[in-house]
Design goal:
169 residues, alpha+beta, H-NOX domain, four-stranded antiparallel sheet, three-stranded antiparallel sheet, 6 helices, 27% strand
Length: 169
């Protein structure tokens, strides 16, 4: 969830629903705090929030004041050349609201594969790098983002992650 939808919070949050399906909690429930539980689910600070903060600090920008063009141009340069977190990254918009991000690198594979032991955790939260990209997308687009799918190839040291923007209802 992007912070502009959360009024009292400056950071993104992850909402993990108690029942399967795509839905978001009411805004007044989100404003209650960073970590809380209610019958609809639980809200947590995303594992990638700190990395996303580092991205903004390093770039000297606030993603909520940029656009998708800036995001797609600057994030690869930042992650590959400046921070050296990845060896390569491709960000493609497959269709309106669906982004496919292919990442290559030893560090990322190590982090992402650790979450493979707990697939439900990775499904909802993502590894720190996958989560940071979801946070950045949420800030850039001002829309909730879900990680739809994640595929890893240990042989090629790549992961491919599908991010879907959730339209307001």
């Amino acid at each position: 969830m992007p912070p502009r939808q959360l009024k009292e919070l400056k950071e993104c949050i992850v909402f993990v629903p108690t029942e399967q399906g795509i839905h978001t909690p009411k805004a007044e429930m989100l404003a209650q705090g960073k970590i809380f539980w209610n019958p609809e689910g639980i809200c947590l600070t995303p594992p990638g929030q700190g990395l996303m903060d580092l991205y903004e600090k390093t770039l000297g920008t606030d993603f909520s004041r940029t656009d998708l063009g800036y995001f797609k141009n600057k994030l690869p340069e930042l992650l590959v050349n400046n921070l050296e977190i990845l060896d390569d990254i491709e960000i493609n918009e497959a269709e309106a609201g669906l982004f496919i991000v292919k990442m290559k690198g030893e560090v990322h594979m190590s982090l992402c594969s650790q979450h493979g032991f707990h697939p439900n955790t990775h499904y909802y939260l993502g590894c720190p790098i996958c989560s940071s990209i979801a946070c950045a997308l949420a800030r850039v687009t001002d829309k909730a983002v879900i990680i739809e799918k994640n595929e890893a190839s240990t042989r090629e040291k790549t992961t491919t992650t599908w991010y879907r923007l959730v339209e307001d209802k």
